[in-house]
Amino acid sequence: MMLWELVRKNEARHVTDTTEVSTASDTWAVLKSYTISIDVEKALVWYIKPTFNSVQSQGLRAKVNGQYFFGLQGVSALKVVQPRWGLVYLQPGTYNVIVEGRHLSTSSTDVVKLTECRLGSMRFSDDVKLTKSASQSVGAGTTLTVINENVTIPAKRRIALGYTKRTVVKIDVVVISGNDKDVTFRNPTEGNGTDALTVRLKINDSYVAWKERYEHEPQYYGAGTQKGVEMGSYWTPFDVSDSQSSFNVKVEIINTQTASDTAYVYVNVYGSPWLLYDSFISPVDLLVTFGSTIYIISEPLVLDPTKEVRIGWEKAVDRATDVYYSQSGTGILVFNYTFDVWSPTIPDILKMMGWGASVMKIAADIRG
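RESULT FIELD:
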């Protein structure tokens, strides 16, 4: 008996724009404006590639109906800027996506360039989602929690392969300073910025380290600070329970300026067991009979990384014997495995990875 499920669905391609545009404006100017229609509740999938021709003072930010999902403004050695991607949960409706740019350099040759913008939409089964924004005045020398939200994780669900076990969630945070001061995203062991808004992230009341922050990345030739707007990203797997559960997200703002500042905070959360992680995890508890064959089709979501799906488990001593079978590759990866030697009930025997990609379809040919 063949069981199957399409776990990534309702897909639409809205924008594929590789026409480079630029601005030399010293105030935020619209570089691109797109109107898109969302037919069912799902996630906006976005990819933005900036190009800066200057060593400093250039920025981009993007929003959907006023909800910012991307932002950076460098004031020191910015030369090479990595593209960014993310997911924004949206209800059905018509949306305006705007990409803005500005430069603060005195050089007349400095321009801000948007090299590429891609927008699509889709929905995962068993998705985790939150779109939230808030603004608050933060007094000089004070700390304020501007966002405090519980995010729902759907209950464990019976699927063709067994049961959902873990869900991968991506959290993007954009912060804008009302005073147009530096905005800096800091990790738990790092000090606060100077004359700035410092941003820290808590998950279930514990500080966590950002996975991506523009001002601390090796693409910058020199230390960086962000004037006016900055973005940080974090992603992690969460266990799925027998009943609906949740995790808590807090965004904390520390104002080290000598005057109060209004912090505008935008949080976009989206995830699913079918969003592949940046290291191997087991998103599924297998429950198929001995002799059955499982199938997992994975492919690019935004990026096209090398994906891998494997059968095996960690042994007591590392002698390169943890993996019995694996398949890997870019593009569309079709994995299949027949349980004719090993039991599918061994905990975490099925693992997968491939950040920027996802599972598209799962299936099981049940025997016995």
